[in-house]
């Protein structure tokens, strides 16, 4: 493939993907923040938004987990006597547990973040059987037949109710948490 063929392919992709990208853009509610967000959070959130719009759903899930680690670490430092060094040693699982114990997170948020953590782990450790299990659960909740579903179909954005819906759910959760913690006004 030469440069012209590649350009033509990109133009064709732009034409085909424009309507779905606009549809995904409309699903995101803009927010402004009353206080400065922790280091990297603004950049990660805007990148996750862009990735969602462009259909890079695996990246959205991974970035949402990273954003969660950043904001929970910041909240735990603010609500406890721990130093930055002490909080830095915790992974996402420990941050969620501690966030719940300190009443930074409610039961629903804790449950949702644990699901995000499991999905993130299954993606980065390439656990196809776990992804297929999550896909079956997502499809059953959506009322779709999941009898022949595998992880590959779940990860393709062409399937309504696949990872695209999970990515939107976790992106909204992370955005809601930043609103909760940093006084954003939707």
Brief sketch in words of this structure:
The protein is mainly α and 186 residues long.
Ranges where pLDDT stays below 50 over 5 or more residues in a row are: none
Total DSSP E strands:
0
Strand content: under 5%
Helix-strand sequence: HHHHHHHHH
Spatial extent as radius of gyration: 18 Å
Percentage of helical residues? over 70%
Task: Walk me through the structure.
The protein is an all-alpha fold and 186 residues long. It has helices spanning 3-26, 41-54, 57-79, 84-88, 92-101, 107-124, 128-141, 151-155, 163-182. It has one domain (41-179). The radius of gyration is 18 Å and the shape is globular. The longest helix has 24 residues, at 3-26.
Main features:
186 residues
Topology:
Blueprint: H1 3-26, H2 41-54, H3 57-79, H4 84-88, H5 92-101, H6 107-124, H7 128-141, H8 151-155, H9 163-182
